[in-house]
Amino acid sequence: MLEQHEGYYDYMLRRTKEENAKVQIKMDEGINLDTSGNELYRREIITLTNKVEVLKDDMKNLTQDFYKLLNRVKELSEENNFLKESLENK
User: Fold this and answer.
1) Burial 58-77 (b: 16+ CB within 10 A, else e)
2) Furthest-apart CA pair in the chain: how many Å?
3) What is the pLDDT of residues 63-89, one digit of tens each?
4) What is the tens place of the pLDDT at every residue in 34-47?
5) Pairwise CA distance, residues 24 & 47, whole Å
6) Closest alpha carbon to 26 in 12, 8, 5, 40
7) Cα–Cα dist 29/32, whole Å
8) Which of 3, 23, 47, 68 minimizes the number of CB atoms within 10 Å of its CB?
């Protein structure tokens, strides 16, 4: 049987839910460790900073893939035009 791959948006939704669960655990730990709430905010800032870095890396990879695909479309278009011309010349 063919194995179905998880779609990008489904993957990102699942990953976000997992990260939110981790944040919730950290928040609970922060409340238990520090009654002033400063530790809670510090951990939340660290978590959000890490998420931003992951998203930046994802955007970088997506942009690279996008430009690779544009180049591939250009190559295929040129090849298609070459084949059409060769058929017309016969």
Assistant:
1) eeeeeeeeeeeeeeeeeeee
2) 84
3) 999 999 999 999 999 999 999 999 998
4) 556 677 788 888 98
5) 11
6) 40
7) 5
8) 3
